[in-house]
Amino acid sequence: MKTWIVRFVSLYVFNLVVLVLIGVLLTSVRVGWAAFWAALVLTAATIWLKPLVQRMFRSIAARSAERRTRLGEKLVQGLVVFVVEVVVWIAVVLLSGVDVRGFLWGWIIPPLALLLAFAAYDLIDDRIEARAGALYDRALGGRRGSTDGATTRGTAAPPIPETGGRSAAAPPRPAASRAEETPRKDRYDGLTEEQRRMLDDLG
């Protein structure tokens, strides 16, 4: 899924630039704001329509390939590529608001421009798609990170158990401490204070 999105978006941006340049450089082609929709049509035609048309014309040309020389075969293959671009350009003009005037400058030169543009794109498509993929991953990662942050901020702190006003329950005291606090019962029990002092002096 990611590969198709990156490829489609990168090719769409490239086609948008190409169509704007064609509208600026050729007075016979008026693009204007229709470039956005025309770039979408051109991108879809390049990805799905162009391979089908190219396969059809090549199968027709292959029927007589054995009767042509090597140079003739190259010329036929070049003509097939150009005819495919003409078909793509016709689809763009018919399905968008691009205005074309004149046969040569409106229907022949723009397909040649597209042919040169796609040849240049084939040389740099890997770098363009790699850059688009990095931007896609960064945008998707930032969205996921913000979602995780919102989840963390929305998590309530665990409740603190009630301790009856004390911060924590007091640990049990050792038996020795409890013994020290218990009143001692020794040999002086039952005597008066004066008798205890006398016994202390004797002892």
TrEMBL record:
<protein>
    <submittedName>
        <fullName>Uncharacterized protein</fullName>
    </submittedName>
</protein>
<feature type="transmembrane region" description="Helical">
    <location>
        <begin position="12"/>
        <end position="29"/>
    </location>
</feature>
<keyword id="KW-0812">Transmembrane</keyword>
<feature type="compositionally biased region" description="Basic and acidic residues">
    <location>
        <begin position="178"/>
        <end position="203"/>
    </location>
</feature>
<keyword id="KW-1133">Transmembrane helix</keyword>
<feature type="transmembrane region" description="Helical">
    <location>
        <begin position="35"/>
        <end position="53"/>
    </location>
</feature>
<feature type="region of interest" description="Disordered">
    <location>
        <begin position="145"/>
        <end position="203"/>
    </location>
</feature>
<feature type="transmembrane region" description="Helical">
    <location>
        <begin position="74"/>
        <end position="98"/>
    </location>
</feature>
<feature type="transmembrane region" description="Helical">
    <location>
        <begin position="104"/>
        <end position="124"/>
    </location>
</feature>
<keyword id="KW-0472">Membrane</keyword>
